Amino acid sequence: MIALSDEVHSLMMAYQWPGNIRELRNVIESAVTFMEGNTIKIDDLPEDIVGSNTNTKDLMPAFKEFKEETIDPMTREYVTTLLAICKGNVSKAAERACLDRANFRKLLKRFHVDAADFRTS
Prior knowledge:
- This protein is mainly alpha-helical.
- It folds into two domains: 3-60, Helicase, Ruva Protein, domain 3; 64-118.
- Helix content is 55%, strand content 3%.
- The protein is built from seven helices and two strands; from the N terminus they run βααβααααα.
- A two-stranded parallel ribbon has the order 1-2.
- The chain starts with a strand and ends in an 11-residue tail after the last helix.
């Protein structure tokens, strides 16, 4: 049995199929020829089908999701590293980051970071 990945399913549902059933059959036959395993993936489809999708919403995450998964963790790591270097001194960490202290504190609050955790006794 042959399956379609979720991405392929979304793409094929969004495609207009100007050649109707013949075009669909040709695309499936071509994909089956090139697929590995028993699931058709995006890489198995012809470029004209993949490149024609104007609705990439289903294929790409929203910017907010992308940011939360990539940029936010890097920013949190940067802030905590600065605090460790500056031994919990928020003013010095903000200065090294070229931020004013208020904006640096907003980052600490946003990422639930307590500067006191980085202070040495």
